[in-house]
Amino acid sequence: MDRRKALKTTGLLASASLALPSALSLLQACQSEKRLDWTPLFFTPAEAALVASLADTILPRTDTPGALDVKVDIFIDRLIAKSFDPEGKEGMRYAFAGFDAHCKEAFGAVFAELSQDRRHEVLKQAEQEDGKFRISVWGTPVGEEAPIGFYRQFKSTLIWAYFSSEEIGENVLSYDPIPGAYNGCIPVSEVGNRWSL
Question: N or C terminus of the chain: which is more exposed, having fewer CB within 10 Å?
Fold first, then answer.
C-alpha cells in the first residue's frame, strides 16, 4: 500500500468518528471496561502500546483526568474494529507501523519506549510536518487542504473522543442538562468554564 492510499484510508479515523451515530454508544461502553481486563478487538499489543502512549502524551493527567483515565484508547480500538472496512483497517495498521518506524529511525526506539522528552520531540516534529485541517467559516471549509497525516488525524480523533466522554462532559466542562433562561448579554468574565452542552 502506498503512502497516498494510507493517508486516504486513515482519513476514515476522523470521518468515522463524526459520521457514526453509534460512536457515542461505543465511547460510553468503554467507560465500564476495566483497564486490566481489556483485550483489544483490533490492536496488536504493539499498536495498543503506541495508541496508549500517544494518548497519554497528548492528553496526560493533570488536575483533570487524562485520555487514559477516560479510556479513549479502548474507544479508538473499538471504533476501528467495528466501523472500518478491511481496507481501512489495513491502512490503519500501515499508518501505525509507519509512525513507529519513523520514531525508531529518527529517535532510536518505537514511540512507547521513548522517554517523555523524546516523545515531546516526536510530537513537535509531527506538528510541524503533518498537514493542517483547513479553516472553515460558518461550517464551510475555505481554501485548499494539504494532505493530512496520521498524527494530525489521530490527535483530532483523540481530542473528540476525550471531550465526548461522560466524565469530561459532566465533571470537567460546565454541564447543565436542563438549562435555564437564555441571557445573551453578559460579560465574558462571568461565563466561566467552557460548556459541554
Answer: C
